[in-house]
Amino acid sequence: MALDKQNEGKILPMDENKENTTEDGIGLEILQIIKDSQQQHGLRHGDYQRYRYLLLVLMEAERAWSYAMQLKQEANTEPRKRFHLLSRLRKAAKHGERLEKLCESPRVDAKTKLEAQAYTSYLSGMVRFELQEWKAAMEAFNKCKTIYEKLASAFTEELAVLYHQRVEEISPNIRYCAYNIGDQNAMNELMQMRLSAGGGGGMMAEKLEALITQTRAKQAATMSEVEWRGRTVPVKIDKARIFLLGLGDNEAAIAQAANEETKERLYETLLAECRDTIQAVREELKTEAKQRERSDEASGKVSNLQFLHSYLTYIKLWTVVKRNESMAHMLQAKLKEPQTDENKRGPRPQDLIRLYDIILQSLAELSTLQGLEEDHTFQKEVALKMLVYKAYRCFFIAQSYVLVKKWSEALVLYERVLKYAMEVQSKAKSLNNSLKDLPDVQELITEVNAEKYSLQAAAILAPCQQKVKDNTPLCERLDTFHLDPTLVGKQPNLVQFPPDFQPIPCKPLFFDLALNHVAFPPLDDKVEQKGKGGLTGYIKGIFGFGS
Predict the structure, then answer these.
(1) What is the pTM of this model?
(2) What CATH code would you report for 27-39+51-182?
């Protein structure tokens, strides 16, 4: 930090890493800063002269420059501070010249001498720039740029990055000076820089914005009307003129954007400008409505101002459609990429569904714009565009069902996608160039057909791919096929071994329990009666009479 002598109480940052801001106030680690500076700038080797002169003068120049930048920010609301700003810049330039003179000493190496010259040229160019002395400023900036480019080519890549950054910072200043001198090509370069990369930082960004606005305002003086949908509308609002003149530049910058991040930022810039313009037209519409009420004029036909409002709303809504389509295209590409990090959440079909919902909502609003209700061609074009985006939305809904393995639902949705796509192709024949700015539905049809075949195969293989979760052996599930990797392993689960004991029947024992209850028939007539012979028969038998 440093305390400005002429402005006591104004504390300027010098090293934010050593500055502590608490609720009690601003703190500064003085001893640590002193020791670090002494070790880095000569005192490690006992070179007090280097520490006393060079670093002190450099910090004086930086203190004056940083205060000037602070005043530059404050001068936007307090123009009187501009005089103090110029005073501080001049003081910074004087300190820079003093530093350059000190570096002429033979004790200073060649690299430091060159850096001191470049630094002095930069500060001198900043002073001339603020004084609008364009030629002198351009010469100073060019000298600074040349020195830094030579230094970048002579040292390591790490140092070269720092030098190239400084060259990029002062390049817009050089082009701005060239434009004010009369170089129209410089103007085109500045506008392209501002649109595609945001121009320079800080003060230069404001200068570029002011330059573009001023140039468009000059062109807007010659612009009196705009034609859209076969109707010519006068444009009397300056903000609307400036926006419509810059619309082509904005669209060109979006088309030439180097990456998706730049394209998204440009879309946001264009939408912000469009919203501001619509608000300005809306204010004029309120005034027009009040005038009609006073004059009791019938509001039948759509007025020119209302039609201009519809045109600007169309630009806004169509820009929203293109922006979301661009985001959807980027997400589709990421969706097809293999997921490397499982912990990181990747894009999902649901993200694309939300984008297409916004697109369809914007298109629905387009069909309700005032002044276009009877424009049947416009209504047909909007309806056709809605069919295209409905097809894509339906496709990603089907994809979301595929992820949860709901094959039948996904298959039905794929059929609906094909229905939408075929309807688009049949209706597009009657509308020339209606599909020019829309996604290719034929490509979608090809992809859906491929997905359908994959889906049918997955649906057939789904039961077969269910893994067995229990330990049921193969011999007990022969009627059902399941994917069991253990069957081709070292320990296939074919049968249970040893088998479980099973009960078997023993040898039967038969007991005749019914015999006691059986009544046999009489056999008396078949058995001899021993009692009838008696003793006579016995005697006959002894003596042989009975034989």
Answers:
(1) 0.60
(2) 1.10.3450.40
